[in-house]
Design brief:
Keywords: Membrane, Signal, Transmembrane, Transmembrane helix. This is TIGR02186 family protein. InterPro entries: CHP02186-rel_TM. The termini are far apart. This protein has a 6-stranded mixed β-sheet. Strands 1-3-10-9 form a 4-stranded antiparallel β-sheet, with helices on one face. A two-stranded antiparallel sheet has the order 5-6. The chain folds into 2 domains: 221 residues, no CATH class; 39 residues, no CATH class. The protein is built from 7 helices and 12 strands. It is 30% helix and 37% strand.
Length: 266
Amino acid sequence: MRLAVFVIALFCLLPASAGAQWLPGQATEAVREGLEIGTSTSEIAITSDFHGADLTIFGALSNTDQLLLAVGQYDVVVVLEGPREDATVRKKERVFGIWVNTRSMTFEAVPHSYSMSSSRMIDDIVTPLDLTDQGIGIDHIPLTPVGFVGDGSNLGEFREAFRRLQQGGGLYDRNPSGVRFVSSNLFKASLRLPANIPNGVHSVRAYLFKSGLFVTEKSLPLRVIKTGIEQTITDAAHDQPILYGCAAVLLAVITGWGASLIFRKD
């Protein structure tokens, strides 16, 4: 119901912008394009049988140049960015025949998860330099090392390892055809939420580009919460770690003792 109301509101906005005309005596100053977005839900509940989900985002453009719109000069990039936290990458090396952690690097306040959809390949929309300036895209997320001292020769190695690990774990994802225009001014985007999506408040961001230049952006919060027994266990582990650890050990002892009774051979 909430999504239907939002879509209807978007349609109501279109005639006003599409029907705007220049009249003699009016100022000819260009009006900047506008962007509005809405999500199919404002909250994702994580249960024991959660295996991932798709998040749908609807959006509308206003004050667009109809000629540029007709020839495909407007592009939209939509991102779901997870909670930010420090992340440590460790490198294992063989020392005396044993694999041990020899070096590590911690990156400051990076998104735990990152899912991106765009109207076409992101590198075809805007230059890599502009993507870096805006921090848009997996390859352009700022990865700033904490307390780094050195010549920077291994920075690229650790940054690439971090991106590879996040993508391999399904936490970083991109879809170059996940945004499509359903009418001249309305678009629909789909973002994949992984099964291991982190708990917390995420941010949905939409970026509008015109002829390769950034125009504007909009953002909305998305809350991801664990429910049921999963949330109870998580809260106990964080709020009372000692009690949680004792309970885990006790449960393991009882389970082992019970198994020995069941499979004991008299």
